Structures are given as structure tokens and as C-alpha cells.
Amino acid sequence: MKKIAILGSTGSIGTQTLEIVRTNKDIKVTALAAGRNIDLLEKQIREFEPKLAAVWSEELASELKSRVRDIQVKILSGMDGLLAVASEQESEILVTAIVGMIGILPTIEAIKAGKDIALANKETLVTAGHIIMPLAEKHHVSILPVDSEHSAIFQSLQGGQRKSLHKILLTASGGPFRGKKREELENIQVEDALKHPNWEMGRKITIDSSTMVNKGLEVIEAKWLFGVTVDQIQVVVQPQSIIHSMVEYEDGAVIAQLGTPDMKLPIQYALYYPERRYLPGERLDFETLTQITFEKPDTETFYGLKLAIEAGKKGGSLPTVFNAANEKAVALFLDRKIRYLQIPEIIRACMEEHKNIADPTVEEILKTEQETYEFIKCRMPRFCK
């Protein structure tokens, strides 16, 4: 019996992870954590019977505790709750499907407790990869990528020697605005940006995909996951989302992972690695598949990608600024307080203002995050509310 804990159980990755649990009777959920959706969390607790569950709000935790008083489950709140779920004694693997830098401390706690990490929280490596990867090596813990692209790279690397890796080819769908120029994006509304052509994802990551900021975050994450430089990562637009990423070896051979756009495949692969199991769902049909096309990303229109590559190359605390500025900007856009094209404007302004810290501690990373939020709120008058 494989025992797992999930951070972010009510989100897109969390709910799909639980779909896999439903169809595989040899997985037991020992702990769950969610943000504010206690209605869904209560249903999950009743179905999967974890020993421990947590929500962020103390008030909501109290309400949830009252709702499930007929069940033997411990309810916690806040960061203490997340840390307890991350290090739950019986679990072997932690699925980090929580959104944002709030995932850093629980991931560190889980690693110290000897848990393997099924990583869907890209902010953890983007901002603290220099801390997380050495810590995982020290504690002999595996970091197993759940993002579709990073899972594809990981799977492709099973076909050759890591030391012979020459380049990573990180694919992108191009999002809903592929092919458009800046002047065509002036009046983009929230509803437009949430219409991804291929993937069903949460609101924040869907906006990130539309700006190609998500691909920039994935470049930085890949740098840490696979021990390469940013210059060894090439972003390739593959609009059909059939090739999920590729690796090129020193001899010129390219190995790719192909499949339908279904996040359950990388989730299940991480949970059972190195075993492969049957997964219900649609398969690629090469008799009807007429073409797979490629394009070069437009980093002038979608210059959030260019900013991410800059942050990834410079390193230090700059990726934290990039990530935090984007989080705040996307939140402002979703609240209809800024225009779509102001998202990368805010990121660039924050990066230009920041004095980079070469090797930041966790405390300095979290402080930089708060300073970035404060800069947007108080020193960019257009966005002060």
C-alpha cells in the first residue's frame, strides 16, 4: 500500500490526484490540505478517510472540525497545519499541488522527514531551487516532477545517460493568444485569457499560460530539476500540445514524450515511478493525427518569458521578485484592477527596482516576496488601492 499526503487537495492537480487514488486501490491518503474550499474538503475527508486535514483559516478549520466530528480525523490550520500534513508520519510521498511560495516551507519539512516529493508547486524551485535540490540530495529524497513538461523531460531522460544531455526542448502551446501582436492584446478581458485551447487548469496558471510567464517559470524550474543552465533550455511552441517536451543528447539524438493533454498521466507516473500502470482515457491516434507543428516563441509580444529567462540567468533573489510580481499582477488582473498588458509591466518594474541577493536564505526569499508586494502596493501609484 502506497501512502500519500496532498497539499492543495481541492485544486486542479489535487482533485486529479484523488481521481487516480479512486482507480488504484493500493494508494492510501493519509493527510489532506486545502485553502478555503471546506465543502469539497469535507467530501474528500469522508471519501478518503485521512488521519489529518488542514485549511489555512483558523475559522474555517473550526467549522470543518464541527462538520466532521463524527469522523476520526484531526483538523489543523495555518502554516502549522501545512507542515503537519507535509510531514505526516505514515506518508511516503507528498504531492505538493498548492499554489504559490507558501509551498516552500512545507516542502522543506517533508524532505527533512524523508518524504519523496511529487512536485506540482513550481514556485518552490523557482525561488528556492538552490536550497531544495541540495537538501533533497542530503536526505536521499526524490523530487518527481508533476508538471506535464517537466514530467516529459524526466521520462525522456530515462532513455539515455544524464551526463550526455546536451539540451532540453521545453514545449509550449502558445496559449489562447498565440500569433497575436501587442496591439491586439490591448483590450483583452479576463474571460478571454481564461480560454486555454488545450488544457483545463486553475485560473492563475491559465493566465500565466496566456502571457507565457508560466513557460518562463518552467525554464527556471527545469534548470534546478535537471541540473542544466538556462542556456541549455530552448522553448519551442508546439500548438497541438502533443509533444510535451524533448531532450537532445550530445550525439544529436532527440527523445520526446508524446501524449494527449491529460495531467493524470504525469501525476500517476510520479506516484508509481519507475512503474508504469494502465491509465484510462483517450489515446493518440496516429492514423488521424495529420500534423505536429512547431514555432519560435514571440518574446517581444510575450516578453514575460524574456524577463523570466533574465531572472533565471541572474539567479539569486531575482526569480523570487519575478514570481511574486507576477502573482500580484495576475491577482490584480483577475480582480479587473489592471489591464492585461500591465502584467509584464509590473514584473519588469519590480525586477528593475530590486537589489539582487546572490544566495538568499528561506527567510530572505520570503522577505523579498513581501517587499515585492509592498513595492507594487505603495510605490507604483497606478496600482495603489
Automatic annotation (TrEMBL):
Keyword terms: Isomerase, Isoprene biosynthesis, Magnesium, Manganese, Metal-binding, NADP, Oxidoreductase
GO term, biological process aspect, one: isopentenyl diphosphate biosynthetic process, methylerythritol 4-phosphate pathway involved in terpenoid biosynthetic process
Molecular-function annotations in GO: 1-deoxy-D-xylulose-5-phosphate reductoisomerase activity; isomerase activity; manganese ion binding; NADPH binding
Domain 1-deoxy-D-xylulose 5-phosphate reductoisomerase N-terminal intervals: 4-129
Binding site for Mn(2+): 147, 149, 218
Residues involved in 1-deoxy-D-xylulose 5-phosphate binding: 122, 148-149, 173, 196, 209, 214-215, 218
Catalytic activity: 2-C-methyl-D-erythritol 4-phosphate + NADP(+) = 1-deoxy-D-xylulose 5-phosphate + NADPH + H(+)
EC number(s) per entry: 1.1.1.267
Limits of the 1-deoxy-D-xylulose 5-phosphate reductoisomerase C-terminal domain: 143-226
Sites where the protein binds NADPH: 10-13, 35-37, 121, 123, 202
Residue stretches making up the DXP reductoisomerase C-terminal domain: 258-372
Pathway(s) it belongs to: Isoprenoid biosynthesis; isopentenyl diphosphate biosynthesis via DXP pathway; isopentenyl diphosphate from 1-deoxy-D-xylulose 5-phosphate: step 1/6
SUPFAM superfamilies named in the record: 1-deoxy-D-xylulose-5-phosphate reductoisomerase, C-terminal domain, Glyceraldehyde-3-phosphate dehydrogenase-like, C-terminal domain, NAD(P)-binding Rossmann-fold domains
Manganese as UniProt keyword: yes
Top EC class, one word: oxidoreductase
Cofactors: Mg(2+); Mn(2+)
Protein purpose: Catalyzes the NADPH-dependent rearrangement and reduction of 1-deoxy-D-xylulose-5-phosphate (DXP) to 2-C-methyl-D-erythritol 4-phosphate (MEP).
Family: Belongs to the DXR family.
Designated name of the protein: 1-deoxy-D-xylulose 5-phosphate reductoisomerase
